[in-house]
Every structure is written in structure tokens, then in C-alpha cells.
Amino acid sequence: MQPGPARPTTSDIRLDLTFDRGRPPDAAGGTSTRLNGLPAYIRPAAEGEETCLVQVVYRTYADVRSRTAAETLLLLVGGSRPAERLCRMATRLAGAATARLPRA
Length: 104
What we know:
Elements: E1 13-22, E2 31-35, E3 38-44, E4 51-62, E5 68-79, H1 83-99
Antiparallel strand pairs: 1-5, 2-3, 3-4, 4-5
């Protein structure tokens, strides 16, 4: 029996992890869940066809105009994978990142 063609062990996957302060995210264009007790929003194709963005609200506060604002963790995964798989990956990574955030 001849071995089949070798499967690549690497792929083009990009990860961007940032924090933002501003308007709280919502579930528009995606789904909502909770990660480590924090509200999270998962958006397939948020930054293009082969991307998935997970936004996790770390905490809310009143801005200078007394409007609700949020400190948000944003985790964007992109690459040559189906959006569903990218979203599973992004959600797991965001869960790991939020587990390390200090609790008030």
C-alpha cells in the first residue's frame, strides 16, 4: 500500500488580541454567549470572509457624558479555514484569555 500525499501541518492562521474602551458590543451580526461569566459576542466574517471576531465585555463604566461604556477584549482569528472552525478557535482562545483577567 502506497502512502497518500503528505498533509500540511501548518496553515495560514492569524491572531490579533486587543483591548478597547468605548461603546459596549452587542449580538448584532453574530451570537451571544458567556465566557468565564463575562458576556461575549461571536461574529463570523467580521473582518472579511475568513475571519471570526470574539468580543468579551470585561467591565462597564459611565463615560464623561454618563453613557454606558465598556472595556472589551477583542480577539480576531483569520486564515484559510472555514468560519465555523475559526470561530471555535477564537472562542476557545478568548475563553483562555478571559480566565486570566483580574476580577474586581
